[in-house]
Amino acid sequence: MKISTKWLSDYVNIDVEPQVLAEKIERTAVEVDEVYRLEKGLKKIVVGETLKVEKHPDSDHLRICQVNVGEDEPLQIICGAPNIAAHKKVIVALPNSRIAGNVKIKRGKMRGEVSEGMICALQEIGFVESVVPKKFVDGIYFLPEDAEPGAPVYSYLGMDEDIIDLDVTPNRADMLSMRGTAYELAAIYDKKVTLPRLEIKESKNDNIENYLEIAADSKLASTYLMRIIKNVTIGESPMWLQKRLWNAGIRPLNNVVDVTNYILMDYGQPMHSFDYGKISEKKIIVRLAQPGEVLTTIDEKERKLNSHDIVIADGKGPIALAGTMGGQATGVDNGTTTVALEAAVFNSSLVRKTARRHNLHSEASMRFERGINRATVVEALNTAAQLIADLGNGEIVSGIAEGTKEEAVPVEVSVSLDKINKVLGTSLASTDVEDIFKRLGFGVDVSNAVFNVSVPPRRWDISIAADLIEEVARIYGYDKLPATLPKGELTPGNYNHSQKMIRAARQLLEAAGLTQAISYGLTTAEKAGRFLMQPSETTQLNFPMSSDRTTARMNLVSGLLDDVAYNVARKVDDVALYEQGRVFYRKAGTVRPIEVEHIAGVMTGLFKTATWHEPKVPVDFFLTKGIVEHMLHALGITENISYIQADGHEEMHPGRTADIYVDDEFLGFVGEIHPNLCKEYHIDRTYVFELDLQKIIDMDKQVKSYIPVSKYPAITRDVAMAVDKDVKNSDIIDCIEKNSGNNLAKVELFDVYEGEHIAANLRSLAYKLTYQNKEATLLDEEVTKDFDKVIDKLKEEFNAKIR
């Protein structure tokens, strides 16, 4: 909200420097983004009058202008603007002047002709293009006829006004108006607010009942009012109105639309003007849009309406999106003679959804979403109607057409002096607090140190005692509140079991060489449904940020694959990432999802690059599995872990994926991404894992304890066998461990061979068995006896051929 201090001074007399005023506003009410004056930094820019305009002899588009700038002789200035003409008041930058961007204008020659300055467009002296009147956007600006040649242009254009740009928070929507801001500053500086009112003059020979029939649902619009102004002449607004609008950041259009925008900034009341002659059947209906209805808005875009959109309709169909944007078909144009003027209070929730659905966030929709002063709707409507009649030489038809009308009443709130002082830590007297409420313009009655406060409708953000305490703190001054240290028994902070396990898992993966990644919790429905570890319904957002963020994720791997693709696209081919976070599962028939802690990793390329003394280490299944295994063991999951070949994951390579179990509990999976999915992401061979971290947290853990190194020697035995290719390594190891007695310490697979000298359907596996007794020295005979038993069992169960 851009506040002009000159406009503000019409309502409250505050003789304070703009920077000081801005600092006070920021410390008391809302943040201030910027304080500026458009004339600052400009130099020697004056009013000029074009006496003569001739074609340049060596150019098709340049003109030689003789310009009166209040000196004895006119200046010759070369101008290329398409709309330059004689006998016009223009903006002239004199020689050695400074225009926007600190650009210096010098005397010079253009195509051989002398140019003593520059005729400027508004953009060239600091105006943003969005506020420049459309007919001057591509050319120079013509000043009013009463502008005096040679005089500085700043006062004619409102550039001598100080502007304070407020960043108004949603709870202080009352400050989205000049009058609301005036009340706030009057309270801060203990001043009186004086608000002028226009006396409305209605035509006694005509009544609005002859023009309109209105029907409105109070659930959609608690107030819906209209006035008719006839015999209006559409034209430019006077300069005072244009200056106020562009200093507020709004482009002037015509005397009707400009008035509605002026009232928007002044009262904070959004309004809309219709061309009455284009309203079908002279009916206005406020209703929800019907299936299949479309509306072309004034920005010339056709919009498919939703059954939650509030529309203003006539006898044929929608003519405006309520509180958001009007329709093109009934817009005011140069041929308009009768104006139907609307002022309303629409359902804030529905306006917000409509603005978001159609991406039509405007000054009007912002105010309807946050709230408006319901007590001044009629006053704003009357003021706007009178201004339109005055500026357009029209007549106001007698009466107001009412669809609905809400009576705005003050809110009664009570708070005690003891409560105020206790919360703020102050020792304020009753008279001090009463004075603050009166400065705010609140009605107040004090009884037994209890303040019964009547809050006017213009402060709809106040409804409970805590709101009143905040108002006292603001006006009294946050900087005056006493500062005290908190009191109470101090307790040491510590992590609970879940937090310790989560942090331990992260540290283990980082120690293994993976880098933490953080992905969005929202993704597409397709990506959310991949890599599922349990059946789940998707959780869709009603109003997603974008088409890529519509669904709550049900896995972490999809987000990590996006990260890999991002890196690979930027020539980073060696990637090792992990993510710890929550996924969202939802059972059929339920609304809210269940949040589950997961941990996942992704690896591609080289795990280690080659050095002069070590070869490179590419990422593969066993490296990825080893990291998972190391993490589980370090977290205390050491027994009954099994890795079972899996083919039920569509997104994973069917022959290079394993499901991870502890006893019969499914923990997750590890393996290689399916080649088709790699092709989709434009990445090379990639390995991933994802585990249900919540199950790991809840499982019984193996308590770590120190085991002394045995002082007795170990004995090893090697065995190589040819077995069928379908036999699993895990099954062989289980067989060895079950049948080798109590002295077996470790089993290692150290060689796998397929090829010559062995049948095509067989594979050679070689194992090293380590035997050790921690209590005594093993005898060779004991080890041989246990080893022979294992050999016999392998032959029996797997038809192994010992080599």
TrEMBL record:
InterPro entries hit by this protein: aa-tRNA-synth_II/BPL/LPL, B3/B4_tRNA-bd, DNA-bd_dom_put_sf, Fdx_antiC-bd, Fdx_antiC-bd_sf, NA-bd_OB-fold, Phe-tRNA-ligase_IIc_bsu, Phe-tRNA-ligase_IIc_bsu_bact
Q: Which GO terms describe its molecular function?
A: ATP binding; catalytic activity, acting on a protein; magnesium ion binding; phenylalanine-tRNA ligase activity; transferase activity; tRNA binding
What domain of life does the UniProt record list for this protein's source?
A: Bacteria
Can the keyword Nucleotide-binding be found in this entry's annotation? yes
Q: Name one GO biological process term.
A: phenylalanyl-tRNA aminoacylation
Q: Which cofactor does it need?
A: Mg(2+)
Q: Which reaction does it catalyse?
A: tRNA(Phe) + L-phenylalanine + ATP = L-phenylalanyl-tRNA(Phe) + AMP + diphosphate + H(+)
Q: What is its EC number?
A: 6.1.1.20
Location in the cell reads: Cytoplasm
Which residues does the record give as Mg(2+) binding sites? D461, D467, E470, E471
Show the GO cellular component annotation of the record: phenylalanine-tRNA ligase complex
Task: Describe its partners and assembly state.
Answer: Tetramer of two alpha and two beta subunits.
* Family of this protein: Belongs to the phenylalanyl-tRNA synthetase beta subunit family. Type 1 subfamily.
What NCBIfam families does the database record attribute to this sequence? pheT_bact, YtpR
| Protein name, as recorded | Phenylalanine--tRNA ligase beta subunit
Organism expressing this protein natively: Liquorilactobacillus uvarum DSM 19971
